[in-house]
Amino acid sequence: MNNIKILPIFNQSAPNVWEDFIYIRGLSMDYVYDYHFNVEDYVLALDDFRDTWRHNSMNFAFGAYDGMNMIGFIRGYCNDRTAQIDNLYVLPKYMRHGIGGRLLAAAQRSVIFDADYAELVSLLHAQEFYARNNFTPVSRGSNRFYKTLSHSSLTGGNVVPVFYPNATVARAVRAIAIKNNAEPVDIRKIRAQRTPMFVYLDAESKIRGLGVAGDTDKAPTRIQVDQKYMTRYISMCLGAKLSAVAHLHNNDR
Questions:
Q1: What is the CATH number of the domain that holds 49?
Q2: C-alpha 49, offset from chain centre
Q3: Burial class of 9 by CB neighbour count within 10 A (0 to 12, 13 to 18, 19+)
Q4: How far, in Å, CA of 90 to CA of 29, rounded?
Q5: Residue 187 is part of which domain span?
Q6: Mean pLDDT of the 153-178 span
Q7: Residue 176 three-state SS
């Protein structure tokens, strides 16, 4: 299972994404709980995905991929400095190989600029999994779990996706552009188009570089790095992440 890649999904409304979510969720529920998804379940799940996407700008999602096939996912949104995790499922064939933990860790890293806490409602058989990952029930016997997110757990050299750049991110990337005497990236456009974006964080979780995917020949991929830091290395790290999600982004168009 070492070839499984965990990749951010910047545009959940892209073709087949929600269908993959529902397929994985349905097979997982069937395997673990012997619950068989029907047409009504499918419609309700699709409506839930759409509503969350439309009404929460700070959505996040990651897929676990075996080659080009999604075999697991996590999704949620941030509100009031809290990351609400709505779904985490893995196909039965891939369970108990650490993929769920990798998805959960990726989601927690990605909300560093938007959340101080994570919350979720756990199904019965998943409660032990969340407890192992340092989530705590809000009260004894509750299926609602929470966790205080520690930004200090991020070590230097982390490249994290930015699903919806907030004011903190906007200020940091503008400062880098000014230092480099370069044109800053268009944050409003990135937000509106859900353009893939990554930032490089130093040991103090400060942004030292950014990469934004291009969508046309006139708007190529842009990478900007604070010139006081390891420019070539950081550029290589950011470029690798953008390349890894390129096929997902290309399918959005």
A1: 3.40.630.30
A2: 15
A3: buried
A4: 10
A5: 158-250
A6: 87
A7: helix
